[in-house]
Amino acid sequence: MIEERDAQVQRGNPLRSAVDKRLPRIAGPSGLVIFGVTGDLARKKLLPAVYDLASRGLLPAGFALVGFGRRDWSKQDFEHYVREAVEARSRTKFNTNVWNRLAEGIHFVSGAFDDDTAFDRLATVLAEMDRSQGTAGNWAYYLSVPPEFFANVVHQLDRCGMAHPGDGQWRRVIIEKPFGHDLASAKELNKVVNTVFPEHAVFRIDHYLGKETVQNIMALRFSNQMFEPIWNSHYIDHVQITMAEDIGLGGRAGYYDGIGAARDVIQNHLIQLLALVAMEEPTSFSPHQLRSEKLKVLRATSPTGPFEETTARGQYTAGLQGSVPVVGLRDEEGFDPDSETETFAACTLEINSRRWAGVPFYLRTGKRLGRRVTEIALVFKRPPYQPFYPDQTNLLTNNAVVIRIQPDEGVLMRFGSKVPGVGLEVRDVNMDFAYSEAFTEQSPEAYERLILDALLDESSLFPTNAEVERSWEILDPILNFWAQQGRPDEYEAGTWGPASANHMLEKDGRVWRRP
Ligand SMILES: NC(=O)c1ccc[n+]([C@@H]2O[C@H](COP(=O)([O-])OP(=O)(O)OC[C@H]3O[C@@H](n4cnc5c(N)ncnc54)[C@H](OP(=O)(O)O)[C@@H]3O)[C@@H](O)[C@H]2O)c1
């Protein structure tokens, strides 16, 4: 059964379809209901992504977009709101014909998540659209809502029969992170969701997996011959995975205070990047094969201790971002002045497999750091012998392959080269591939890719419940340790984190990259 499904999905697999422009994947008759449509994520990302898909001709003729929210809006009010979001943020140029076609299928249902009659009305609207719009009973429900409402909405969908497809129809649920705040709550959430929607109908969004550059990790590793033979502990000294942001947290207290950097970024984005970099080659990119390989490597992954030395945690204080003075976290609007929430988190993970034993994976993320960058750096061992005088190579560091996820998407290789002149001095040089220079096509936004994949039932780029739970199993011991430690260390805004983060690597004779 799984093999048959794999074979079907393989025909439209992520890597093949990303390059084969002659075979665009167009969603079949279907509609999308967005819960939390008045929120930040919907306005900035989801609605523009839906328009971009429409404008690329990737949505079916009778596509329906239904918003559910507490505002007392008419269809026209909602249409106006969607149009504003699209004009402000869509990637493709606004086109009146595309808009008019999309607007025909736009509807709004007003209500709160505990309002049974509102959900009954929603069920009536969807049934009506199945007849008038041709959505054929195929609906995806996007839960762009605070996590405490996931269970509520799922139960309401169940109660009104909206979670259960008729013959030849489908119903899917798309869930935004965070998937729990620890292993126990993630299990509880998965249980609630899976009692209503079978696992194959659950699409958990980790928008990092929708990024072209993240999918390029698979292309780089498995479509080339030159990398894979050296992608192991014989050649690689250590791996650094960094997601650094220069912005602060003003205005995001409601979501962030009490959550912190590790839960917000390491549990999902960074551990997913580790899985893609470290997994074995899947036999295909079908959902089953790809996700089994990721899960296998995650099962071999564990945190390295002792955590006093192998992890670091920090909170930004006032400083300069560029040349602009900024306040510390505790003075940000909405934050508890005694907040112990970390805005910087770093940890050391190890992978107990033949390929990776002895290679530390250092993960770090933070707000108000030196610059915005996400990258994976594979740092190689030194050659066993170098026939140079020491002063000829003292400016040479370890070779590295750096996969830049954002911005300046691309791949960089650092290696030694002779400095021109009569001597034999060797120094680091960079060979740099930039997406923006190599390709004329613009990358689609991650949310475009992921919404389309959910409509197409292509689940390769969505983490499974098992992956989510395993990620928490990896992180929970570190979070429990930190919970006993009181306040995080401090670091000045605009720097690269607390001194303890540097110590983490220095004790191993290594240093963090300064991207
Ligand atoms: N923003 C991002 O970039 C981002 C990134 C990754 C993940 N996420 C996740 O995505 C989800 C949405 O994020 P967001 O930034 O859009 O949040 P947000 O701006 O706070 O919006 C939350 C949405 O939920 C609605 N809502 C809240 N309580 C409700 C209730 N009782 N009944 C009906 N509607 C209710 C709000 O409606 P009202 O307008 O009526 O209050 C609003 O539409 C969250 O789970 C978040 O963790 C967001």
From TrEMBL:
Q: Which organism is it from?
A: Corynebacterium gottingense
Q: Where does NADP(+) bind?
A: 70, 177
EC number in record? 1.1.1.49
The similarity comment for this entry is:
Belongs to the glucose-6-phosphate dehydrogenase family.
Q: Which residues form the signal peptide?
A: none
Would you say which domain of life the source belongs to?
Bacteria
* Name the record gives this protein: Glucose-6-phosphate 1-dehydrogenase
PROSITE patterns linked: G6P_DEHYDROGENASE
Indicate which residues the UniProt annotation says bind substrate: 207, 211, 245, 264, 367
Q: Which GO terms describe its molecular function?
A: glucose-6-phosphate dehydrogenase activity
Briefly state the protein's biological role.
Answer: Catalyzes the oxidation of glucose 6-phosphate to 6-phosphogluconolactone.
Q: In which pathway does it act?
A: Carbohydrate degradation; pentose phosphate pathway; D-ribulose 5-phosphate from D-glucose 6-phosphate (oxidative stage): step 1/3
Reactions catalysed: D-glucose 6-phosphate + NADP(+) = 6-phospho-D-glucono-1,5-lactone + NADPH + H(+)
Catalytic center residues? 269
Question: Residue limits of the Glucose-6-phosphate dehydrogenase C-terminal domain?
Answer: 218-513
Q: Write the record's keywords in alphabetical order, separated by commas.
A: Carbohydrate metabolism, Glucose metabolism, NADP, Oxidoreductase
Which positions fall inside the Glucose-6-phosphate dehydrogenase NAD-binding domain?
Answer: 33-216
